[in-house]
From TrEMBL:
Predominant location category: membrane
Compartments it resides in: Membrane
Transmembrane annotation, as ranges: 37-59, 65-85, 97-115, 166-187, 199-219, 239-257, 278-302, 322-346, 375-394, 400-420, 432-451, 457-475
Protein name as annotated: Amino acid transporter
Organism this protein belongs to: Acetobacter malorum
Matching Pfam families: AA_permease_2
GO molecular function: amino acid transmembrane transporter activity
Keywords associated with the record: Membrane, Transmembrane, Transmembrane helix, Transport
Domain of life, source organism: Bacteria
Membrane topology category: Multi-pass membrane protein
Length: 485
């Protein structure tokens, strides 16, 4: 029987992975360049948040000022992205914010942020898979190919049969299919995944450009008045509080760019390429979001989008280019596919890093003998995400994913300031300008968006973190590399 090493509360809370002893784990290929990283970030970011949440945020919270909500979220992400870039250039190891926290804030905080990233990636991927399924079913219906309704919905959802009768679903098979397909591509290798993702990203950006280019001529300026609808007396319902609530809602649209930092160990020159990938993908996505929301709210009055499950299609109907509906559906499906790829890739790399450090069982850090990818981690999350998307109606978890991402951003910004004091002379290929100003602004802006989210979202986050804490205290606290040493 293995004896557990004695460890005081203070030691496991404060023990950090020394920066000079943090070594790259063996087995992951360095094959990604700056172009692949930007494509990965764009692919993992533009998806459900843009195509579905924009209409919800405009109709329920901000009106045409949802444009400002995207801008506020982009600024908060920009501060965090600069901090990510500094840490990624210093610590080119798989694991993203988890690894940064382990070096700067201690093992306990590293576990919290790693467990938090499970929420961001795994639950977010399952949510996107369900949305992917719905758009694919709609596209196939338009081509005369009808899938059995009960095999495209969870047991908690009501479906209508061809004879008009109502029943409940059995499982969402299309969602299971796409998760399995993407997982197999990721197991096959990061370079192959990057090539597939690059093609998907090009298609997606072309569709977004077509929507903006063809739609801008049919904007009705009257739809922008009032630009900021007056608050109705309830926090979050229009006015400036509505703009902030909308920023929290559509923050789901920005959750993908930090997936770039999870691939630091597979990047050819991480000190140079990681800042390019992180900031480049964030810039492309921010410009696309602001332009997209400007055209959408100009084509359709925000009041007309209330309860609209497909606001993009509604907007296209206000133009004479109905062929765009088919193109946008294909673009949305491509968008969801690349988001799934980024989320499942990021999750497997975070678990790889946590397992390497002893906080999780060693199976998650084993690499495939031929493909040199963490294949067991990929398979584990393929199974978990398939079960979630097949049997649970989880499409309402966008807020939950957003708050998890915002928490990670706050801790990364804090980590930059801590590491500057702990290791002021450590090499930094990229340094955030302005001293502590940008990290502090990142903490304040992300915290402000978090505060604007509803109480139920906060309760879910606390419950999720409590479950993770129980796992850490029962396993990782005693079996981590630092505890054993």
């Amino acid at each position: 029987m293995t004896q557990r090493p004695a460890s005081s509360a203070a030691s496991f809370i404060t023990r950090c992975m020394p920066l000079d002893k943090l070594e790259s784990a063996q087995g992951l290929k360095r094959v990604l360049g700056p172009g692949s990283l930007v494509a990965l970030g764009v692919g993992a970011t533009i998806g459900a948040g843009l195509f579905s949440l924009t209409g919800i945020a405009a109709s329920e919270n901000a009106g045409p000022a949802v444009i400002l909500s995207f801008l506020i979220a982009a600024i908060a992400c920009g501060f965090a992205g600069l901090c990510y870039s500094e840490l990624a250039s210093m610590i080119p190891i798989a694991g993203s914010a988890y690894t940064y926290a382990y070096v700067t804030l201690g093992e306990l905080m590293a576990w919290i942020i790693g467990w938090d990233l499970v929420l961001e990636y795994a639950v977010g991927a399952a949510t996107v898979a369900v949305s992917w399924s719905r758009y694919v079913v709609s596209l196939l219906d338009s081509w005369g190919l009808v899938l059995p309704p009960r095999l495209t919905a969870s047991p908690f959802e009501t479906v209508q049969m061809p004879d008009g009768s109502l029943t409940v679903g059995l499982m969402n098979l299309p969602a299971v299919f796409i998760i399995g397909l993407v997982s197999m591509i990721l197991i096959r290798g990061i370079s192959q995944s990057a090539k597939v993702n690059a093609v998907i990203v090009v298609i997606k950006l072309l569709v977004i450009a077509a929507f903006i280019g063809f739609g801008i001529s049919y904007i009705h300026p009257a739809n922008y008045h009032p630009f900021i609808p007056p608050n109705d007396g309830t926090f979050g319902h229009y006015g400036w509080s509505g703009i902030m609530r909308a920023a929290g809602t559509i923050f789901f649209a920005y959750v993908g760019f930090d997936a770039v930092s999870t691939t630091a160990q597979e990047t050819k020159n991480p000190a140079r390429d990681m800042p390019i990938g992180i900031l480049g993908s964030l810039l492309v996505c921010s410009l696309a979001y602001i332009a997209f929301s400007f055209v959408m709210t100009g084509l359709v009055n925000y009041k007309d989008m209330l309860g609209d499950a497909a606001p993009v299609a509604t907007a296209i109907n206000r133009t004479p280019f109905h062929w765009l509906q088919l193109a946008v559906k294909i673009g949305i499906i491509c968008g969801f596919t690349s988001v799934l790829m980024g989320m499942l890739l990021g999750q497997s790399r975070v678990f790889f890093a946590m397992s390497r450090d002893g906080l999780l069982p060693p199976m998650f850090s084993r690499t495939h003998p031929k493909f040199q990818t963490p294949w067991l981690s990929n398979i584990f999350f393929m199974i978990i995400t398939c079960l979630l998307s097949a049997f649970l109606p989880i499409s309402d978890l966008g807020h939950m994913t957003s708050i998890g991402t915002l928490l990670a951003f706050v801790l990364v910004c804090a980590g930059v300031m801590v590491l500057r004091r702990k290791s002021p002379d450590a090499p930094r290929a990229f340094r955030v300008p302005g001293g502590d100003l940008i990290p502090v602004l990142g903490i304040l802006s992300c915290s402000a968006v978090m505060i604007s989210l509803d109480k139920l979202t906060w309760i879910r986050l606390v419950v999720w973190l409590a479950i993770g804490m129980a796992i850490y205290l029962g396993y990782g606290r005693y079996r981590s590399v630092l505890a054993r040493s």
